[in-house]
Every structure is written in C-alpha cells, then in structure tokens.
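The step that takes the researchers longest sounds almost clerical: writing a folded protein down as plain text. The outcome of that step, for a single protein, is printed below.
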Amino acid sequence: QVQLVESGGGLAQPGGSLRLSCAASGGIFGISAMGWYRQCPGKKRELVASITKSTSTDYADSVKGRFTISRDNAENTVYLHMDSLKPEDTGVYYCYALELLNLYWGQGTQVTVSS
C-alpha cells in the first residue's frame, strides 16, 4: 500500500506561480512513476505531468514550458512547480503513484487561477 499526501494548492493570479507537493509513504520501493492529473471544470481528468524512477519526464502539451515536475528521492516527494498560470489551469490536481500494477491516488488539491 502506498499513501499519498498532497499540499500546496490555493489561489493564484493569472501569470502567477504555485508549487504542489506529494509525499509518498508505505510501499514506496516498488513505485516506478509518479505524477499529477487534474480535473478541470466540465472536462475529463487529464494527465498533467509524470516522472519515472529514472527521472524521465512527460508533460501535457497545454503545460509544456510552464510546469516543471521534479522528485526528491530522499524525501519520497514529487513536486509540480507551476509558472505562468492561466485561468484554464483551474481545477483539482491529483497526485498518483504507479507501484507495480497498482495505481494510487492522493486526495486532490484545489488550484484556482483568478484575478
């Protein structure tokens, strides 16, 4: 079992920045990849960014050049640094971890981009 605890959401102005954190605990040694999905109002849940154990990263086209995913293996934590935020980035952001064939989710954190 893997437990994921997210933090760092909140309100930002357009053009602003936020950083999300996701701390993993439990069966972390089998985790091969972690990342973030988001659920924007009226839209399907979409993959925002992912990072593998070997630190290979992938991003949705809509966030490339604005968001950066990173991981601290010592702290078992993944970060999503979001710059140049847009109103359409508003949504609930969910951390996930892929451990062997099991997919775990965090509780979700709200990100609101508004002036």
Observations:
- The longest strand covers residues 18-26.
- The mean pLDDT is 94.
- The CA atoms of residues 35 and 50 lie 4 Å apart.
